[in-house]
Amino acid sequence: MDTPLDRLTEQFRRLPGIGIKTARKLAYYMVQQPEESVNAFIGAIRDAKSQMHFCSVCFNLSSTDPCPICSDPRRDHSIICVVETPQDVLAIERSGDYHGLYHVLHGALSPLDGVGVDDLRIKELLQRLQDTEVKEVILATDPDVEGEATALYLARLLKTAGIRVTRIARGLPMGGDIEYADEATLAGAVANRQEM
């Protein structure tokens, strides 16, 4: 049976990280909401889809072009932090400790998934580095196989341009237990230790 509720459930299930049980729960929740709440939800989705786009400089999601980060004169324009996704920009911004610019690759190198150099915003990064006075590029790709491969590729590419290339440190999360950490995390924590 293909009811409107089934179709709504299927649409929620298509979202990343949403399984069938959560999708069904969300569908039931939505149909029980007042009409104005549902219309506000639909309007928010429609507005986000129509008004958000990629910044022409850093390729982060924004409702303006260039985005507020790229156009902020108070930010350090000599440093660019390279990340995989717009969500990574948000995470780093929440820390409140980084005041440079960003460049969003929109993925990581993954030959098995058919993602190569031409599928990422690497060409745009190189062009951007020619047009600016950037002194340092921070590679903040994920610490997985794809992220590490992307970081290594970019490091080799950028070192020939005479720009300082750094990688974000890896280590234990705040409140984490050493005994439960994997070997790679512990190795990164020891290698990236800091003076106290």
From TrEMBL:
PROSITE patterns, per database record: RECR, TOPRIM
UniProt keyword annotations, A-Z: DNA damage, DNA recombination, DNA repair, Metal-binding, Zinc, Zinc-finger
Record CDD domains: TOPRIM_recR (cd01025)
Source taxon at top rank: Bacteria
Gene3D superfamilies named in the record: 3.30.60.80, 3.40.1360.10, 6.10.250.240, RecR Domain 1 (1.10.8.420)
Domain Toprim: 78-173
UniProt zinc finger (C4-type) residues: 55-70
Function: May play a role in DNA repair. It seems to be involved in an RecBC-independent recombinational process of DNA repair. It may act with RecF and RecO.
NCBIfam families (UniProt xref): recR
Family affiliation: Belongs to the RecR family.
Protein name (record): Recombination protein RecR
Source organism of the structure: Megasphaera hexanoica
Primary gene name: recR
